[in-house]
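Box 3.1 A note on notation
Throughout this textbook, protein chains are presented in two layers. The first layer is the amino acid sequence; the second is a token string describing backbone geometry. Keep the layers aligned when reading.
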Amino acid sequence: MKLQRKSGLRALTVGAVAITGALVLSACGSDNNDSSGGSTSTPSGSASSSSNASGISCAKGQILSSGSTAQQNAIESWVKDYQQACPGATINYKPSSSGEGIIDFNQGTDAFAGSDSPLKPEEVASSKKVCATGQGVDLPMVGGPIAIGYNLPGVNNLVLDAPTLAKIFNSKITTWNDAAIKALNPGVTLPSTKIQSVHRQDDSGTTDNLTKYLGGAAKADWPYPHAKAWAGKGGQAAAKSSGVAALVKQTEGSIGYFELSYASSESIPTVKINTGATQPVEATTDNASAGIAQAKVVGTGSDLSLDLSAAYTTKADNAYPIVLVTYEIACDKGNKADTLALTKSFLTYVSSSAGQAKLASSGYAPLPTEIATKVQAAVAALA
């Protein structure tokens, strides 16, 4: 599950991550944002499919996509594999934010978008302008834990619970030796260091999912509705998951939230959550899967948006409660003729058992089988 971020990735021009079939990436997780995309050897209008030894049914052409940085490491890994197998394809993914990805999709720029939260009703209505005979639908694709990372030298096994986290992120608890934190960590020497909480500067599905958890598990201490925009008081802001992780790593006394892959790649210790289970629960892919398995599909038709509320208050052993599922947003019908084949082929691969099997090594949780099966059927029906 250890990730490496090669400096060569950062040498790409600032903007969309353009990964051509000839470019082999051994690292995942940069925040390059080159909206110009990258070079392509195949005109976007030419799309045809063929099978290869990898089992991927290739399509030719190029597509643009953007959105969630939470799924960035997974997307880059999938794109690398797909383009190695399909040299006639170019898939450009710009890691921006869930909010920006939806905007790009609804403006007709992207073939699909990544979002850590399902489309709102007004966003579905807007999507009908670009999905000629259909609308945007939510296809869950990447699961995983939202890790609570911290920087507190000498403290390597920190336990917190939902009310304490809510108070920390709302500036109600301001020092690490606060009585509430000490009660959750008996026998641990906690310094009087001031707590520096770090949150997302940009609208983020990661923020939306964290605040859903805080509102669901600590209603009395988190008075704000869940949202992609941060509402808590105080703290420092940083752009994207990588920015929050970088600020936590360099700031003693800090605490922040980001996907587990960022904690793993930056060697940032993570909080165990006291849920009322037999033991505090660590942020791992297996423990996140146990939480996500409780999700219920609440979307209709081809839309497979999920309700994760049961995970937030679970007391089941080894079930990590702060989870997210990242969606790929695509037109169920009315896709552009020059992008449909490649969009459908790529999403078929990433939702397949082979594609999902790659997630754990990047710090993500594969979708439960019953959900993955529904996603595969929805992708097959894209038109």
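The two ends are 36 Å apart (CA to CA). Residues 66 and 94 are 4 Å apart (CA to CA).
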